[in-house]
Amino acid sequence: MKDEEKILKVHCKALGIPSGSAEVFIKKSISAAEKSLKNRKIVIRADRVRAISKELKKYNKDLAYVYENFDKII
């Protein structure tokens, strides 16, 4: 999930989240999302985004919202 990590880092920078703390909760969120999706046979991008956003809400609700809607915002 390297792509998600890159996208999240860009969003963190745009939101003004310190890079040190952003690194920590990005890694924790992605690893938790991977664990939750591990047992599924088919995982689409929307599933990954939803799972990561769910985990991100624990750390930063603004980042979770931006990540969940980044391809939908006009």
Account of the protein in words:
With 74 residues, this protein is mainly α. It has one domain (2-68). It has 4 helices and no strands. The model has no long low-confidence stretch (mean pLDDT 90).
Secondary-structure blueprint:
Elements: H1 2-15, H2 19-37, H3 45-56, H4 61-68
Shape: globular
Given as residue ranges, the uncertain stretches (5+ residues, pLDDT < 50) are none
Helix content: over 70%
Mean pLDDT: 90
Give a concise summary.
Helices cover 72% and strands 0% of the residues.
Features of this protein?
about 70 residues, mainly alpha, about 0% strand
